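Thread: fe (iii) ion complex, take 2
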Amino acid sequence: MKLIGPFKQIVTLANLPLRGKLSDEQLEIITDGGILVKDGTILKTGNFTALKAEFSQIKLEEIEGEQVCLPAFTDSHTHICFGGNRANDFALRNAGKTYLEIAESGGGIWSSVLHTRKASEDELLQTVLERINSLISLGITTIEIKSGYGLDVENELKMLRVIKKAQSFTKATLIPTCLSAHLKPKDFTGSSEEYLQFIIDEILPKVKAENLAKRVDIFIEKSAFLPEESRNFLLKAKELDFEITVHADQFTSGSSRIAVEVGAKSADHLEATIDEDIEFLAKSNTVATALPGASLGLGEKFTPARKILDAGGILAIASDWNPGSAPMGNLITQASILATFEKLSTAEVLAGITFRSAFALNLEDRGTLENGKKADLVTFKTDNFQNILYYQGSLKAEHIFIDGEKV
Ligand code: NIG
Ligand code: FE
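Output below.
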């Protein structure tokens, strides 16, 4: 057992609703606080001096200077297992080329597939670990990672095995997702419906047998998979007992409806979601995940986060870190920028990258600082929590704790 502190402020994010809008006045802030940790779990939060007096023999982990402590963040949507780089896509986009033109000139998702197929497991493991460490340094200790750059049995399994192996090298929690339905691979001879059936018959059973992922994702879009075939695929994946998440409404609306109808845990992107569908989504238990990094990467509009919250939806915010649409990999910067464009309160943003994004991954043991929760913490050297988003990511995390231990 040990006591961590003192903190100028502890922002616990406790006792807040899972859904809907939040104001900063609703935030519980413990000033001059301490956190009591036992076996990786929070036992108590409260006034540091009082806790020290109550547990006089206890080991102390002293915090220097004025610092603010929050629950560590959860990035619930990334594609950080990939080979190569797509800087040329960026140049082509800025020269006015369309998505299709870029794909035709050798860029796009398919080019990342070719690089990822070429990479060995060891090479992929090294790069994914570097990206994981970079996320940890931002205060993110729970990271979802998708496959989807293999797109055949061998390479999809390779990606998921790499993610599984990465877990044995990091204290961060990694949540793998099978995104074999990212795109119909160019070397698959058959229709996209046949490819989706191939995933059901040939990939998912192996994913299950090796326990490589419990979640299945699909990119529903004109350039990827159409709504009806996607719905059938998702229902079959559900029958195989996978949890569902969807790349929905990125450029065209309609697919968030499918996500809700099949009971997806989350619908992610939503840049193009129409008002009617926002209402539908917001009334459901499907988490609406904004990916501001993709809006910034592509120069597209932001997810209507304000409308989603006002309609009572569960809003998470994630980085979408990938080599194509979202190469930045800085969730704090992206979430801060989303706040300015969508007029979000600090409380709404912090909820979106802590307990609400953890909920999107079915992890209800983290994301707030209260008794019984996982002692994953992030601290910032500042006297006021508002400064974290105000500086748009340039105020760096000072300490990161996982299970109560500094990493
Ligand atoms: O979430 N939209 C589809 N998939 C990714 C992009 C992946 C890529 O371009 O490599 C996304 O933005
Ligand atoms: Fe994505």
